[in-house]
Amino acid sequence: MKKALITAGHKRLGKAIALALVEAGFDVAVHFRRDPEAAEAVVTAARLAGRRAVALHAELTDSESLPALVAGAAEGLGGLSLLVLAAADYTPTPIDALSAAQLDRAFAQNARAPVELALAARAQLTASGDGRVVILGDLAAQIPLHGYLAHSLAKAALHAAVRGLAAELAPEILVNAVVPGAVLRPDDLPESAWQRLLDVVPQGAVVAADPAAGSRAIAETVVYLSTCSRFLTGTFVTVDGGRTARW
């Protein structure tokens, strides 16, 4: 059984992952919060490739909506064997204005929702006989990003959840993480600033020459973790072009 639910599977890294999984023979459920047209475009591409696919809307911070999301994926695909948690919130939180509400939002989006969704999918993943969860982590969990303290704290909690879930859900479900570096320019980052960042990444020239190369590297790593030996769990694979080698 190769049937995957990808959160935020309609855009950016989530879209690249969804399409790579389709190429690897997975049926896909594409979650979205906004932009149903983008989600349907991914679904259409998957169906044209001969795979089953559905688009599903959900607000991931609404705990009560998560069982319905999992049920919709399982119904639409005929089961569920893989959960890819690619959705994230990157709201800046300047330290002089950091509030309890901002902290709550960051933790709800980046830590609580992934854990709750993994637990909501537990029965379906176990029933597949090869249940797996792949989580997109963040370098900010290791070294907090200036101006994004709430995000960094929440991502550190998410990294703890990877190991915790791997231990708690074994042996039925594998839980691993991919930690992206500078792989895809943020929409609000000027091209000049992006190029300066790539200049300090040892393999940054790869992404500078081919803007899709970083996304492909992430997607290929997710595919690997979705199909590899079941001895691999609780692991973080950093895909950053060598950035942390000279941090």
Structure characterization notes:
The chain has one domain: NAD(P)-binding Rossmann-like Domain (Rossmann fold, 3-Layer(aba) Sandwich). With 247 residues, it is of the alpha/beta class. A 7-stranded parallel β-sheet has the order 3-2-1-4-5-6-7, sandwiched between helices. It contains 9 helices and 7 strands; from the N terminus they run βαβαβαβααβαβαααβ. Helix 2 links the parallel strand 2 and strand 3 (53-57).
List keywords for this structure.
Rossmann fold; 9 helices
Question: How is this structure best summarized?
Answer:
With 247 residues, the protein is an alpha/beta fold. The chain has helices spanning 12-23, 36-48, 66-77, 100-120, 122-128, 149-169, 191-199, 204-209, 213-227, and strands at residues 3-6, 27-32, 53-57, 82-85, 131-136, 173-180, 236-239.
